[in-house]
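Re: weekly structure request thread

Next one in the queue (88 aa):
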Amino acid sequence: MNIIAWIVLGLLAGAIAKAIYPGHQGGGILATILLGIVGAFVGGSLYSLFTTGSLSLAATSLSIPGLIVAIIGSLIAIFLWGLIARNA
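Done, posted below.
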């Protein structure tokens, strides 16, 4: 997937995940994009683990199912970031 598609997927997934997740999350547009891109990797890796049984570093594609997986991954990334930032 090219870099423009990654940025678009990251922006969409990060923005939707921030809207769904309860509470206030700081950060601007760059943080939202990075969160979405990390979420795409987390979601894609978990999806490949559940479907194939092996963990591989994979990202989702720019499609509706790929966006849903990236949103779920972004929600997980928000949760983990909240845990890390709270302990620091």
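The chain has one domain: 3-87. Residues 29-52 form the longest helix (24 residues).
Next request, please.
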